[in-house]
Amino acid sequence: MSELSEEPADMRFVRIGACIIAVLAIAMGLLWLGQGTGVVLWPSDSFMLQDRTWARNGLLLAAAGAIVLWLALPRQR
């Protein structure tokens, strides 16, 4: 049996929710990183464009999302 079928339904709900939030955090972090470094120039009038502060914030958010995703994924025993 898989590990997912052995865990309680409420814990599975929390795990799936954490994965969704983590993926969204990674996507938003990568967007901020791209805008802060000037790779993504969208929207063209954004205050975040080519601002190193937003590049740093994006990197931190993407890293935090990756950590949450890694912790939320089921492990093989």
UniProtKB/TrEMBL annotation:
Entry keyword set: Membrane, Transmembrane, Transmembrane helix
Keyword Transmembrane listed: yes
Protein name per UniProt: Putative membrane protein
Chain segments annotated as transmembrane: 12-34, 54-73
